[in-house]
Amino acid sequence: MPHPHCVPDAMANLVINEMRALYGARFMQQWQGLTPRELKSAWETHLSGLSEREVHAGLLACLARDWPPTLPEFLRLCRPWLNPEAAYHEAVAGLAARRRGEAGRWSHPAVYWAAVATSTHDMLHSTYGAMKARWERSFAEVLGQGSWEPVPPALTELPAPAHDRASRARAEAALQRILATQSQRGTRDGRAWARQVLSEQARRGGKRYSSTVLEMAGRALDIETGARAASARYQDNRRS
Q1: Which domain holds residue 215?
Q2: DSSP assignment string, 8-28
Q3: Which superkingdom heads the taxonomic lineage of this protein's source (predicted)?
C-alpha cells in the first residue's frame, strides 16, 4: 500500500547522519568535492518521492554492506520490489498466503496486479527461470501504468447461500454482457473476456467487477494456462 511521502529535509539529514555513522570516512570520500549544503541538496532531491518507511528500509539494508551505496544504489535498496526477481518471489509468497485466506505481504500494489496479469496458477506452480520472461513483461507493463488500485482484501469466508446465489446471478449477467460485447467485435478468443476483466480491474479508473466475476476470470485463465501446459507436455512426450 502507498505511504505518505516523508519530508525530504528531515530524511536527508537522517540518511547522511546514518551513512556517516555506518561508514565514516568511506562515505565522505565518496562525496568529496561537494560542500555540506550540496551534499544535502543532492539527497533531498532524490529522496523527495520516497516514504519514510522506504527510507528506513534502505538504511536497514545498508547494515549488510561494507561499503556505502551510491545514491542510485540506495534508492534501489529503498524499493527492492522494483527488482523483478525480488518482486516475483514476493508475489509468489503473497499469492500462497491468499490461497490460505490471508492478505499476504505486498510492498506495492503493482506487484500484486502483475501477478494477477501473469497467472496466479502458473506463478504458484513454476520456477522463476520458467516464468522470467512472462513475469518481467507483465511487471513492466503494470509499472508503466503509473497508478494502481489497492490490493483487494483476501476472501476469508463464504457468503450466506441466498446472498451467494444472488451474487452469482449478477456475476453471470455481467459476464454475459461482456461476452455479448466481444461477440459483436468478432472476438474468437474464448478467454479474452477474462483478460479484459482483470486488466480493467487493475487499471486505476477502470471498470470495477464483483469478487465473483474476478474469481471466475482468474479460474478461466488458470484453466487456460493449465491446458496449455498439459498440451505442451503431451507434445514433448510425442517428440521424445
Answers
A1: 159-240
A2: HHHHHHHHHHHHHHHHTHHHH
A3: Bacteria
The pair phi, psi for residue 203, each rounded to 5°, is -80, 130
All three cell numbers of 229: 501446459
- Whether 2 maps to a domain, the answer reads no
Burial pattern 106-143, b for ≥16 Cβ within 10 A else e, equals bbbbbbbbbbbbbbbbbbeebeeeebeebbbebbeebb
Q: How far apart are CA 208 and CA 115, in angstroms?
A: 18
Cα separation, 3 vs 109, in Å, equals 12
Q: What is the pLDDT of residues 167-208, one digit of tens each?
A: 566 666 666 666 566 555 555 565 676 777 677 667 666 666
Distance CA 92, CA 115 (A): 8
- Quickly count helices (H) and strands (E) in the chain: 12, 0
Q: Encode pLDDT of 3-38 as tens digits.
A: 444 556 888 999 999 999 999 999 999 999 999 999
Instruction: Enumerate long-range contacts of 197-200, CB under 8 Å, 24 or more apart.
Output: 198/116, 198/117, 199/117
* Final residue belonging to a domain, choices 107, 134, 157: 157
Handedness of CA 204, 207, 213, 217 (dihedral sign): negative
Number of folded domains in the chain?
3
Q: Which one of 44, 78, 112 terminates a domain?
A: 78
CB half-sphere exposure, 153, CA atoms < 13 A: 3
Name the burial class of residue 52, with classes exposed (0-12), middle (13-18) and buried (19+) by CB atoms within 10 angstroms of its CB.
middle
* Exposure of 21 in the CB half-sphere (CA atoms within 13 A): 9
Name the region of 41 (left: φ>0; alpha: ψ -120 to 50; beta: rest). Answer: alpha
